[in-house]
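Problem 12. The chain below contains 31 residues. Write out its predicted structure in token notation.
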Amino acid sequence: MTLSELLILVTLLFPGILLSLIVMGTFAAGG
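Solution.
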């Protein structure tokens, strides 16, 4: 795996991880 492929993978995965963390935090705060 090259550095550019890794960078693309991180760019694709990071928003999903961030979104799930926000959702988890919202449920924890609201529930």
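Discussion. The chain has one helix and no strands. Students who got a different answer should revisit the alignment rule from Section 12.3.
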